Every structure is written in C-alpha cells, then in structure tokens.
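Open question from group meeting: does this chain pack into something compact, or does most of it stay loose? Before anyone orders reagents, we agreed to write out a predicted structure and look at it together. Recording both the input and the output here so the notebook holds the full record.
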Amino acid sequence: MKKTLKIIGAILIAIFVLAMLVVLGFKAYDRIKYDSFYDHAEKEFYIPGLDEGFVPQGFEYMEEEHVFLACGYMSNDKCSRVYVISDDGDEYYYTDLKRENTDPYLGHTGGITYYKDCAYITGSDGIDVFDLNDILDPSIKFTYQRGTIDTFGIDPAFCYIYDGELITGSFYKAGDYETPVSHHYTTASGDTNKAMMVAFDLINSTKVEYYVDPKPVAAYSIPSFVQGVCVTDDGKLILSTSWGLTTSKLHVHDLDKVFATTNSDFAKTALGLEYNIPLYSVDSSTFVETIEAPPMAEEIVYLDNKIWIYNESACNKYIFGKLTTGNYLFSYKY
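Structure tokens returned:
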C-alpha cells in the first residue's frame, strides 16, 4: 500500500512539474515573441469577469467619471454586461443588459461609447442604445435596451466618438465574416478594402432621438480585421486588428492624409443613400507604422499618451491568455 501511495505521489508531482513547465514555457515564448511590445508597455490592472464566463469586447474611458466602461458577452449564455472600472482598476461593478421586452440581451457587444445619458453598444443590426445613468449606478443590476440606431447595412463591430461624430465600422474576414460586395472598395493606391466605417453627427438636443442625427455624414473604407479605433492627440488614427491566435496589430495612419483621399460617389451607393457623402480611404497611402501586440486585442482607448488595449485571450472561452499575460489590461506608450 505504501509503495502504491509513493507511486501515486510521484505521478502527481511529475504532473505538477510538467504543468508548471508548460506555463513557464508559454510565458517565456510570449515574452520573447512580443519583446518589443512589453518594452514599451505597462501592466495596468486585472480584467474583471474573466473567470465568470465574461468575454471582453468593447472598451471606453469616461474622463468625467474617471472610469472605464468595458462590455462583453457571456460564454455561458447569460446576459451580456457592462463593467464600470475605476481608472486604477481597484474597484468595479457590472450591469446586465436586457432587451426592451425584458429578454436577456445576448449581443456580441463588440464596441461601446457614450454621449449624454446614452450608452451606445454595437448590435447585430445597428447601434443599440442603453441608459448610461443605469450603468453608472452600482445599485442597478440590469438595464433595458432603449432602441437601435440604423447603420445602413454596416454590421457594427466597434464604435468610437471623434470630433462630434459617432463612428462605427464592420469587421471583415473572408469566409467567416463577409461584408456586402457593395462595401468593397479599391482605393487610389490600388488597395482593396472590404470593410467600412460610417459617421453620424451628435446633436445636443433631446429633440433628436438618442442625440444622433440619423443621416450619415461621412464614410471610411478600411482594411480587414478591425476590432477597434482611436485617434491620438497628434492626429494619428489607430486601427486595432486581430483574429484568433495570430499577432494583434495596431496599424497607425495619418488622419490628415486619410481626409485628403476622398470619393464622393461610392458611399452613396454602398450605403443606399439618396445623397452623396464623402468616403475617406484608410490604406497604404495613409499608413505610418504597425505596432505588434499579443493575440486577441479588442477595442482600444487613447489616454495619457498611451494606447490602452482590451484583450479577450484569458477568458474561459479561450483560456490560453491565462498562461501568458492576457489576464491584464496593458497600455502601450505612444
């Protein structure tokens, strides 16, 4: 009996040592492969909800409240939720999302932003609107969808507010996430983009539903795999791109050059409008550089001269990020 127990003990120890070696191997590989990223990055705080089935997607910062808004769906088919996280990550709480008819809201929640009392979250048919005050109140455990903003055929994967406009865009990957052929555009530089962003004016008036003018004012032709966008203080447009276990890439573009490349006819047809709006091209002619980052980067925030990168790799659905640094939100000095 003692001999059997010794054998079992030795096996358990061997399994433990092997598991530790695997973890250390993953960490070493990650640190070596993304050495340039970590040399310029800071570990900010632990991403909440990862061990509860939460899959991180959308990310935004509220300067007025000094908190982050972070949304995602649940891999266990519970309500999608929005986390409110203090800017140091020490405190957080979440609000469950529900449909107008009180059914659980199970949307992918790829992006989140806000204006006035509206929280804008990307849905399957447009931008879904929720009550921001409910989300910011820790005593309220769930909030109902107020309505949806039409995005004119764009299946929104992310959203962002810039220069008084609500901007949302699609994610393209051949075979898995196709976009309408009418959205495919060959730019003046010869690049073929198969995804688009569309922009709406924000109106500071309760007479306009959800403060968003329903008529688009501009569109952007963008590359594939875009998960999020932000604009730096010096006018750089950054696209967060990722897919699966491949290296995430933050593509930096010169916004002045983006605005210099326009087509006034394409967007009208692509979006089914009755009037022309400018189409701006994000392509090789506007490209500045690429920053490589660990896999599964989602939405990004530009804050304090750093790019804050939300990541889904350590959720229970994918797990592997738990073996590297995916449990944490990192910021990249830019």
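Observations to bring back to the group:
The chain has a mean pLDDT of 92.
Helices lie at 2-33, 35-39, 132-136, 255-260, 266-271.
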